[in-house]
Design goal:
Layout lengths: L1 H39 L4 H6 L9 H10 L4 H32 L5 H12 L7 H10 L7 H4 L6 H14 L2 H9 L4 H12 L1 H16 L3 H6 L8 H6 L10 H33 L4
Helix pairs in contact: 1-14, 3-14, 4-8, 4-11, 5-8, 9-10, 11-14
Length: about 280
């Protein structure tokens, strides 16, 4: 018996060691591209073209001067990206939560076909409707405006699906019925009772929505043509030198400045992702 127990303990230790090694390797592979980006932001163009390096160089300030000489305004870019990302995130999480609540708490005739329609919309890529959307915004005189980048965030099928699954696992209809008996209105019930219950899921989807809107390049590049309205991804995409030389160091620095706020947001709110996934996966 002792030999069997020792062999089992040894097998568990070996399996744990293998798991730790695999996790460390995956972590290194995940961090390495970002580390290379930040390192290249400190290197000159000849150094970048000479090969890969994992050690920072001394050309950070020169890259910054080149970046600013190209009419790159990081303050304006940060402000525009933050306005669009924060407003779109609020619209996404609130109206998606409201839609999911309507799909779970109310028993109406077209509930399942409506949910099926939402899932079908989720499979339509944004690029397929980009031309028609631009023509529609042009007729409304909404080009060079933040509204076309914020208001469509109200319709987020993937977030609706996540919120619906979360409510199916955690929401007790008795709570809603008790609130109705006490005389609470439907919107008051949703805002005062349901939203606090959904905070882990809301925080999780808010992070994903913020990151997605911050990194969005396709639609802002189409709709925004005035420099003072450019977002950070658009500014970085337009960074290029003349036909004879491209300053890769300044481009990497622009990419690093664009990604830096996402790291800060993720590290501050990453615990909500774990809590949201854990609570959303448990069904009473």
């Amino acid at each position: 018996m002792e030999k069997v127990q020792r062999s089992e303990i040894a097998g568990r230790r070996i399996s744990k060691t293998i798991i730790y090694i695999v996790c460390i390797l995956l972590s290194v592979l995940s961090i390495l591209p970002f580390w290379i980006m930040f390192v290249n932001a400190t290197r000159s163009t000849p150094e970048i073209q000479s090969g890969l390096s994992l050690l920072p160089s001394t050309h950070l300030m020169s890259n910054l001067h080149v970046l600013l000489d190209k009419s790159f305004d990081p303050v304006r870019g940060f402000l525009n990206s933050f306005i669009i990302s924060s407003c779109a995130t609020i619209c996404t999480v609130y109206f998606s939560s409201l839609t999911a609540y309507g799909l779970v708490a109310y028993n109406w005739k077209m509930r399942q076909p409506f949910f099926t329609f939402i899932m079908c919309v989720m499979m339509v890529p944004a690029q397929a409707s980009a031309i028609g959307f631009y023509q529609f915004m042009y007729k409304l005189h909404w080009t060079n405006s933040f509204l076309p980048l914020i208001l469509p965030a109200i319709a987020a099928p993937a977030v609706v699906f996540f919120m619906r699954q979360y409510l199916l696992a955690t929401l007790s209809i008795e709570i809603v019925e008790a609130a109705r008996v006490d005389g609470s209105g439907e919107f008051k019930t949703f805002n005062r009772i349901i939203l606090p219950l959904m905070m882990p899921a809301i925080a999780t989807q808010a992070i994903f929505a913020f990151v997605g809107n911050w990194n969005n390049l396709f639609m802002p590049l189409i709709l925004l043509t005035q420099k003072e309205k450019y977002t950070m991804p658009v500014m970085v995409s337009l960074l290029r030198g003349d036909i004879y030389k491209t300053e890769f160091g300044s481009i990497y620095l622009g990419l690093a400045l664009t990604a830096l706020p996402l790291f800060i947001v993720y590290f501050l709110l990453s615990r909500y992702i774990i809590a949201g996934v854990a609570l959303g996966g448990v069904k009473e």
